[in-house]
Amino acid sequence: METNPYLEVFIDESKEHLQAINDHLLKLEQNPRDLAIVNEIFRSAHTLKGMAATMGYQDLASLTHQMENVLDGVRNEKILVDGNMLDVVFDSVDDLEAMVVDIAEGGSGERNVEKVVAKLHSIETGEPIKPESSVEQVPEKEIHSEKSTMEVDEFTLTVLEQSADQQLNNFEVVVSLRDDCMLKAARVYMVFEVLEQLGEVVKSEPTVEQLENEEFETSFTVLYITQADKEEIEAKINKVSEIESVTAKPFSISLYTETQKETVTQHSEVPESTPEQTQESPSAVATKAEPKKEESQKQEEAQTKQVGNKTIRINIDRLDVLMNLFEELVIDRGRLEQISNDLNHNELQETVERMSRISGDLQSIILNMRMVPIEQVFNRFPRMVRQLSRDLNKKIDLQIVGAETELDRTVIDEIGDPLVHLIRNALDHGVESPEDRVAKGKPETGKLELKAYHSGNHVFIEISDDGGGINRDKVIQKAVGNGVVTEEQAMNMNDKQVFELIMASGFSTADTISDVSGRGVGLDVVKNTIESLGGNITIDSALDQGSVFSIQLPLTLSIISVMLVEVQEEKYAVPLSSIIETAIVKKEDIMHAHNKKVIDFRGKVVPLVFLKDIFEVPETIEGDEYYSLVIVRKGDKMAGLVVDSFIGQQEVVLKSLGDYLSGVFAISGATILGDGQVALILDSNALIK
Amino acid sequence: MTQDSKTLVKVIVFQLQDEEYTIPVDAVGSIERMMPITRVPRTAAFVKGVINLRGVVTPIIDLRERFGLEHMEETEQTRIITVTIDGMAVGLIVDAANDVLDIYEDQIEPPPEVVGTLEAEYIQGVVRMDHRLFILLNMSKVLSSDDIKQLQEIDV
After folding, report:
1. Which secondary structure element, helix H or strand E, spans residue A501, and what is its range?
2. Spatial separation of the C-alpha atoms in residues A151 and A91, rounded to whole Å
3. Does the interface predicted TM-score (ipTM) exceed 0.90?
4. CATH superfamily placement of domain B3-155
5. What would the pLDDT profile of A162-212 be if each residue is shown by its tens digit?
């Protein structure tokens, strides 16, 4: 496909816009009268439509268009925001999402949306109010004139008045494209992009639909609210290629209301009467040099004024490549340091030191680039919870805390599904129906809290509800019934262990299997996914008070903190996350229990694991009378790994051993040390029985 | 030009105990001098460990040991040939690697019943050329991880 380079951007941005629409629709549900929100939705929908049309996805564009009509009705206070209307709009957003997903998967984005379109249409026309009491038409040829007069309707006027009150500038911006402009719609789109970065477009003439369908000559006019001044707007728009001229002039409301008709005619004449254009248009080629100079001047001006964040999208693979290259650099740096130390050359040493510092900074930047806020995942939950609570006839108040918490991109990609599952679970099995809640003396509305925070080298995500909690007896009964555990085993289990049973495969505590959750295949999958990410999940619950599912995840999958140790002459890395502490014990302090060597560690009996024996390390160094121990834990269990010496703590890049050696016992991966050597990373979980 | 119609295969030639073996060039990533190898415990004996191949951790197989040949100390000639077979990147330790050869597919003969001490299942065919005999290896078989898995099961 020739549009391929843009496809990825299109998909990403479409998803963002759909998310924004979702978010704002939810907000709108809370404040149905807030027109600012409607405006936001409208804008997102509008951009989406523009993009879809440009990319040639007609179905997507037309559905968005229908949705836009409804939103426009809301904006003009012709349609009331109510549950029914929101449902339909949500439905259409769902369809849009499905289309975008289809496109992302290489489909054509086509989808049968007749039903939704019909519903949207009935909402649009269902209200008896006549569409737009437009009295006068622009004296230009208008094809569809639904709401396309340059007449500024009451809503727009109010907006303009408000903005004037807020010390914002109202401009009337006239943009003319060059006669030889090939992609008018694209240029229009780019101009709108620029405009929307700086402020808000309230009205355009011809209408945006017509602009996008290229149903205009070369110029168009927009009414625009912004903080920026005339020069800035002009300079920014001029940066878009193939723009002939731009003029922004202040728009006066009082003047408009007085001489409405005149203003309208003036509008349509403005492009022709722009002095710049009349100058340039006869011989665009001849005068090309001049405007260019001007342009570059303006560009410079604009650049100095440039504030705010600029972002670009980078494929994660490229970041991986960058990371790999950087690692090689680090290895060479290590060698260089060695050489400069050996040579003892002052200047060389200084240079190498500086280089080391810079590469250190570089490393943290590269690592940071991979971090994204968990917001990306959390974003979709409000919508999901809304839908679920309606389906289940429950009332839910969802709280999200710490959405800005950052996680490695790879973790973010994986964590979505497990969270969806846990939330569904909490809503379906956790929170009781309103009647039950009232009977229990709890508020009718259930609470669901989604919380993310950093702690040390980990990110914690907690999903807590104030629902029924987990019924210990019921779990045991079921687990024994399903043969997950025996009755004797169950008797000796503490609460935590019992709760963990619900994550065993073949388990579902809901008495009835519902659509939402509970086919007994879920929680064990959740657990596995989280563990495969190097994290773990714990459950805390109190009957009738609620449950907390707490997920602990590594900050990043690619960089971990380890303790480097030596076993004879081999180096191994033990992840810090599993280390409790290190200790040195005398040989005579070792005790024997069941033929195993153990130590008394702070009042607990801890078995020793001799890495030398387990890993069959060739023996070259004589042991002394002390054992160096790394105390590691897995859940409540502990073990002391016997090593020969500690080297120190280090951040290392986790690498896989490759497919050929997957599944090596007690080794979770490898890393490359500063000297270029490979050190293996221990999987201490496998060493604790 | 009869030769045009035949498929030409470019192969890398390497030595293992007086015999010459070939691997298609397509499968070969690079040829490296010996470098420090980090042992990976509890793997098959012929898995020598892993190396840092320009930032990528690559497992290393001692082909002599894989084929049950007697052990030889590394020399100046010893090389690691990195190959990618079925998506797996692996380095092979060989006695020497010093030739690239063009062979035509119709020169390839089926493996003889007995070729030295080597089990025939690793051999795809043989090529006779200028009084030399080249053995074409079936790399998938050489890398087949069944053997490793078996060993692991016994260990654990």
Report:
1. helix A495-501
2. 33
3. no
4. CheA-289, Domain 4 (2.40.50.180)
5. 777 777 777 778 888 777 776 777 777 777 777 777 777 777 777 777 777
Classify residue A648 by burial, with Cβ atoms within 10 Å: 0-12, 13-18, 19+: exposed
Structural domain total, chain A: 5
Does A536 participate in catalysis according to the annotation?
Answer: no
Contact assignment for A672 to B57 by CB distance below 8 Å? yes
Q: Nearest-CA neighbor of A65 among A42, A97, A88?
A: A42
Predicted model pTM? 0.51
Size of interface A-B (CB pairs under 8 A): 84
Nearest CA in chain B to A679: B38
Neighbours of A617 (CB within 10 A): 20
Q: What is the distance between the alpha carbons of residues A153 and A136, in angstroms, rounded to a whole number?
A: 12
| B47 in reach of chain A (CB within 8 A) | yes
- Residues in a beta bridge with A605: A600
Tell me, yes or no, if A68 is annotated catalytic. Answer: yes
Beta strands in chain B (DSSP E): 8-16, 19-24, 28-33, 47-53, 56-62, 79-85, 88-94, 96-104, 108-109, 123-129, 132-137
Does residue A306 lie within any of the structural domains? Answer: no
Dihedral of alpha carbons A550, A554, A555, A561, sign? positive
Would A29 be classed as within a structural domain?
Answer: yes
- The Cα of B106 is separated from the nearest Cα of chain A by a number of Å equal to 32
Q: CB count, 10 Å around CB of A68?
A: 21
Residues A10, A189: Cα–Cα separation, whole Å: 13
